[in-house]
Amino acid sequence: MVKTVRDALVDALDNLSKEAFKKFKEKLNDPGAQDRIPWGQLQDADTGDVATKMIRFYTESMAITVTIQVLEGIKELDAIKKLQESLTDNARPPIAILQPTSQSQAERPERREHSAARNPDTNEQYMETEEWPCLR
């Protein structure tokens, strides 16, 4: 079975000592960090909770990057190596090669424009369609 990004993050965090995991959470919430998960959400969180919160807060790819940066910051270089190996061994195919299974592009309903306007704040023109609004 292929590991998910969350599985790889949990494994990496599980391999940290209790003290190193505490440092990880503190560094993750470092006031110097641009985007940080609030301490109240991290304080009592276990490894699975931290991994889930990181993916929800940052996205999967950014959670990996942030994890590596934090592990570097707390000098857990062995954990970085194991995380990278885990992710490499279980690489998933890029999304670009996946094919849609529901409708082919030719079968999809045509989007029809029904209004056009400009955003008064940015002066950008956008077209609203029956399915969704999109910027032009």
From TrEMBL:
Q: Which Gene3D superfamilies match?
A: Death Domain, Fas (1.10.533.10)
Instruction: Name the segments for region: Disordered.
Output: 90-136
- Composition bias (Acidic residues) maps to 127-136
Domain named Pyrin: which ranges? Answer: 1-89
Q: Name the residue ranges with Basic and acidic residues bias.
A: 107-116
Record's InterPro entries? DAPIN, DEATH-like_dom_sf
**What is this protein's name?**
Pyrin domain-containing protein
Q: Say which species the protein is native to.
A: Hymenochirus boettgeri (Congo dwarf clawed frog)
Q: What is the lineage of its organism?
A: Eukaryota, Metazoa, Chordata, Craniata, Vertebrata
